[in-house]
Amino acid sequence: xxxxxxxxxxxxxxxxxxxxxxxxxxxxxxxxxxxxxxxxxxxxxxxxxxxxxxxxxxxxxxxxxxxxxxxxxxxxxxxxxxxxxxxxxxxxxxxxxxxxxxxxxxxxxxxxxxxxxxxxxxxxxxxxxxxxxxxxxxxxxxxxxxxxxxxxxxxxxxxxxxxxxxxxxxxxxxxxxxxxxxxxxxxxxxxxxxxxxxxxxxxxxxxxxxxxxxxxxxxxxxxxxxxxxxxxxxxxxxxxxxxxxxxxxxxxxxxxxxxxxxxxxxxxxxxxxxxxxxxxxxxxxxxxxxxxxxxxxxxxxxxxxxxxxxxxxxxxxxxxxxxxxxxxxxxxxxxxxxxxxxxxxxxxxxxxxxxxxxxxxxxxxxxxxxxxxxxxxxxxxxxxxxxxxxxxxxxxxxxxxxxxxxxxxxxxxxxxxxxxxxxxxxxxxxxxxxxxxxxxxxxxxxxxxxxxxxxxxxxxxxxxxxxxxxxxxxxxxxxxxxxxxxxxxxxxxxxxxxxxxxxxxx
Length: 506
Known about the structure:
Layout lengths: L2 H16 L5 H16 L3 H5 L2 H5 L4 H8 L5 H13 L13 E5 L8 E5 L1 H17 L13 E4 L7 E3 L2 E4 L1 H6 L10 E2 L2 H4 L4 H11 L5 E5 L2 H15 L13 E5 L7 H5 L7 E8 L2 E5 L8 E3 L5 E7 L29 E7 L6 E11 L4 E7 L13 H15 L5 E8 L5 E8 L6 H15 L1 H7 L3 E9 L2 H10 L14 H12 L1
Parallel strand pairs: 1-5, 3-6, 3-7, 7-8, 8-9, 17-18
Antiparallel strand pairs: 1-2, 4-5, 9-10, 10-11, 11-15, 12-13, 13-14, 14-15, 16-17
């Protein structure tokens, strides 16, 4: 009998019962008030009159009126760069203990995003919320005695001046509570290995020594790790190595494009739980099995605003125009794409995180990630978001009975002077590429009326190239870094797409 597991599950049940449901609107008002109160004497707070905003009748409206939008480049140039010069009290009291390095999907150059002690605490609290939510998933008691494989970036953080630097998954893993370390795998020594292939090699060698009950990490890299373990031990699926694996916590990107290829590595079904951890904070987590939507962490150090998704509000570089209107959580609508704006306990203010979301349940503040502002494809009016592209990819998987775990797209002008959407699909599909292109085109027409209109006018058609999925992994390895928070860019501009095509054909 799983005695320890029953005790842990009982504590989770009791804590969940005693925890009252918070009102997202009231919680968000309180979060903003606390952020402004704490930062009012910083350089940023004085410049933007936080003390005056706090005395206004409508703090949320005054905040939106006075403080402009910032993307990373703008806030780093004007404010965060001062932190690198050793200055204090810039956008948040004191100095940050960490900087999260994030190249995201934009290239080799890392962003350096401040991570304060308050943000570490907020991430821990969100993690506790996620653990408590497991009570809703009807997991057996012995699950709570199993180990958890967290595959992120290296926990061997780099010391620089008076702070540490690394990717956010490495920073959070290096700050796990002492009581959790007995459950955490691959363990501190392996987790510190910087080279991703070497780290995965050690995981494969040690896999049979562990009783893994849950996995956590970005889908593309979790898949590669599972493949390496399966190959190393010459078995058919991962459940032959980890028979008690029951949960996979996904994060960073939408899971749907990876669902079919992920399931092919399993011997039996697992519960998939979506999470949304960005370098700027722990945004949301799935709290119930009836939906794959995630609940915003609305009471935990992040104030959210939402800009209706409209191409007229977005500059060519993906940043927001000054006149883009924002709304707070009480005014959002269902199934409307919004550009996500956050203000945080790490001193990010009205910060464009780069993601678009849609609410699936307003009362519970549940959302889905629908895309990236930089991946919104609007050449010749097609207005394609990543979620529409993902839906089309799933249609192809069903039609051709295949797996397509990676893809990228560019709207480019071909030799005939016409615009086409040029797609590269990572798959072993053997169908004729023209047939695939027709099916993809039809799926997009059905999913998006703007795309259908564009296809009748300036967008000539679709071209498809099928390549091994390993090419996508090699591209990430060459241009950035394997593993961690790195994600394949779904949409490329023509200049980068030329480099991509040269790489694919080399």
